[in-house]
Amino acid sequence: MNKETHEIFTKFLKSENHRITPERFEVLDFALEKEGHFAADELFVDMKSQNSNISRATVYNTLELLAKCGLLVKRNFGDGKTSYESNYEKKAHDHLICTNCGEIIEFSDPEIQKIVERVCREHGFIPAGYSFNIFGKCKNEHKCDISKNRKNK
Ligand SMILES: [Zn+2]
Ligand SMILES: [Zn+2]
Fold first, then answer.
1. For ligand 2, a single-atom ion, which residues have Cβ within 5 Å?
2. Ligand 2 centroid to residue 125 C-alpha, Å
């Protein structure tokens, strides 16, 4: 566990009048240890497999709170599902999403951040987040063989 993240989350829960429960911090620790992007259900299964008594509802609620508090960031990769990833001490980044094999590639380009800032300034808009996804096909020939994986459309 990381003391600083616990302090950030405690402060947030207090300021929003949420109850401070050990289960919420259990979810926090598991979520920040996850590599990359994950769905709420994946985290729930992980926690269960490590003998946690956590309920599915607590995992879902707490992930929402962690996203609101900024320790996690919520993503939507166009598949209708919500993914989360750690936002703690992590550089802002965006994603290339392979619609054929599901591969997600992260990249970071300061130009995008500049555009977001400029557009918001022009519109007098206060940003709370943005999303920039590029959909297409990746270059991984083994994993991403289009003839094998293509769904009939
Ligand atoms: Zn990411
Ligand atoms: Zn691919």
1. 98, 100-101, 103, 138, 144
2. 36
Closest CA to 95 of 109, 110, 82: 109
Q: Are strands 133-136 and 104-107 parallel, antiparallel or unpaired?
A: unpaired
Q: Indicate the residue among 74, 90, 106 that finishes a domain.
A: 90
Which residues crowd ion ligand 1, with CB under 5 Å? 85, 106
Q: pLDDT tens, 70-119?
A: 999 999 898 888 999 999 988 889 999 999 999 999 999 999 989 999 99
Domain span at residue 60 reads 1-90
**CATH code for the domain of 139:** 3.30.1490.190
Q: What is the pLDDT of residues 40-80, one digit of tens each?
A: 999 999 999 999 999 999 999 999 999 999 999 999 898 88
Single pTM value for the model: 0.83
Which ligand is in closest contact with the Cα of 105? 1
Number of domains composing the chain: 2
What stretches of the chain adopt beta strand conformation (E)? 72-76, 82-86, 94-98, 104-107, 133-136
